[in-house]
Amino acid sequence: MDEPALKEALQRQRVVEAADVRIGMVHDAGPRVGREARLAARFEDCDAVVYGHTHVPQVERFQHLWVLNPGSPTDRRKAPVHTMIMLTVKRGRITPELVTLS
What we know:
Elements: H1 4-9, E1 13-18, E2 21-26, H2 35-42, E3 48-51, E4 58-62, E5 65-69, E6 83-90, E7 93-100
Parallel strand pairs: 2-3, 3-5
Antiparallel strand pairs: 1-2, 4-5, 6-7
C-alpha cells in the first residue's frame, strides 16, 4: 500500500533489543501454512517476532519464540475487532497482551 520510494527506504526486516530481549520485525510473514516455523528459523536469535500484513491478531508461543501480530487498531479487515498488542519486557522476559479496542 505504501509508495515505492518509501518501500525502498525501509528495511525488509529489523531486529531491536529492549531490556535484554531481541525482537524481530517483518511486515509480511508469508503464507499461513508453516508461518511459525519459517519465522522461528528466520529469527532464531530472537525472543519474539512481530509481523503484520494480515491484520489478523496472533499471540502464540512457537518453540523458543513469541509469534505476534497486533492486528490493527484502524483497519480490521478479516479480524472481528480492532486490536493491538502491549508488550511488557521485564528481567529478560516478554509478556504479550492482546488488547481489544472495539
